[in-house]
């Protein structure tokens, strides 16, 4: 098997032996792939965990276009600091608390999401004031070191007053608990945070940039060639393959991953068992929706599946 599938990394060669449907299932499962920007972001986040309490705690805004992997990064960060149960005290420690922003950025909905993440129940009878007090108490009790708020651009769905209240809430929590707060969102979220000068002054910014045709992209595609469970060597590290991939995805991480996944599934099912520049134009490959506009005038995209 090592000779037959020598183009794959040793740890992944066994997957090429699976049935077609088992390989398709493997391709569609979530897995963490270490990427340079993601690892750099995680290093910034790890620095916040060990930051000693002080009067003005540093905060971080992780931002970038939709699909650049913000949620995956903060989820990975949360898993690396999963809750731990202390048998001696009978309490759980939650060093990193990940909270999803509610659809509407009202104070009561925000604290409801926060308390739910803290495993609280029976919240319907609590007033906003009570929820605020309970959140402060529990965050201290479980020894939260970093509070992470994902998709904070949802706050833009609120009125100007609701947005101001939400930003004031962030400032209140970091002041009161003396913990860093990490916000993940889009460029619009960055602009929203900048509307509060006192809060913006505390935030560092880490932007996830789209991929371009450089050495990092070549490394990424070489990695895919070595881990996708295809039985023939792929030819992704060519000028044509890189250019076509970027044209179809605009360099957005999520689109790249979904396009390669779709192309790999098609290569398994049609027996090609490898990827090259032409693979992205196979009739069974589901394209990113944005590629419909990038390929304006190319009638061959009409009638094909658009993701």
TrEMBL record:
SMART domains from the UniProt entry: AAA (SM00382)
Lineage, broadest ranks: Bacteria, Pseudomonadati, Pseudomonadota, Alphaproteobacteria, Sphingomonadales
Recorded hits in Pfam families, A to Z, give: TniB
Every copy of the AAA+ ATPase domain together lies at: 56-213
Superkingdom of source = Bacteria
Q: What is this protein called?
A: TniB family NTP-binding protein
Q: Where is the signal peptide?
A: none
């Amino acid at each position: 098997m090592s000779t037959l599938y020598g183009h794959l990394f040793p740890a992944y060669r066994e997957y090429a032996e699976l049935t077609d449907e088992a390989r398709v299932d493997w391709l569609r499962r979530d897995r963490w792939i270490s990427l340079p920007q993601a690892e750099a972001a995680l290093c910034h986040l790890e620095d916040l965990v060990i930051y000693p309490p002080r009067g003005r705690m540093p905060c971080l805004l992780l931002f970038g276009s939709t699909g650049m992997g913000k949620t995956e990064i903060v989820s990975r960060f949360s898993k690396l600091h999963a809750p731990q149960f202390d048998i001696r005290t009978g309490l759980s420690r939650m060093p990193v608390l990940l909270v999803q922003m509610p659809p509407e950025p009202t104070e009561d909905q925000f604290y409801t999401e926060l308390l739910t993440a803290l495993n609280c129940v029976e919240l319907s009878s609590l007033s906003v004031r009570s929820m605020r007090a309970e959140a402060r108490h529990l965050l201290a009790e479980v020894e939260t070191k970093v509070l992470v708020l994902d998709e904070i651009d949802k706050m833009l769905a609120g009125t100007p007053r609701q947005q101001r209240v939400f930003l004031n809430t962030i400032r209140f929590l970091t002041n009161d608990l003396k913990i860093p707060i990490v916000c993940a969102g889009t460029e619009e979220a960055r602009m929203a945070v900048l509307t509060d000068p006192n809060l913006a002054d505390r935030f560092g910014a880490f932007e996830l940039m789209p991929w371009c045709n450089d050495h990092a992209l070549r490394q990424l595609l070489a990695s895919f060639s070595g881990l996708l469970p295809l039985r023939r060597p792929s030819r992704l590290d060519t000028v044509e393959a890189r250019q076509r991939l970027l044209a179809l995805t605009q360099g957005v991480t999520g689109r790249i991953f979904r396009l390669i996944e779709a192309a790999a599934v098609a290569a398994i099912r049609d027996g090609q068992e490898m990827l090259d520049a032409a693979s992205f134009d196979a009739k069974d490959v589901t394209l990113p929706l944005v590629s419909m506009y990038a390929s304006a005038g190319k009638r061959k995209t009409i009638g094909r599946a658009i993701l």
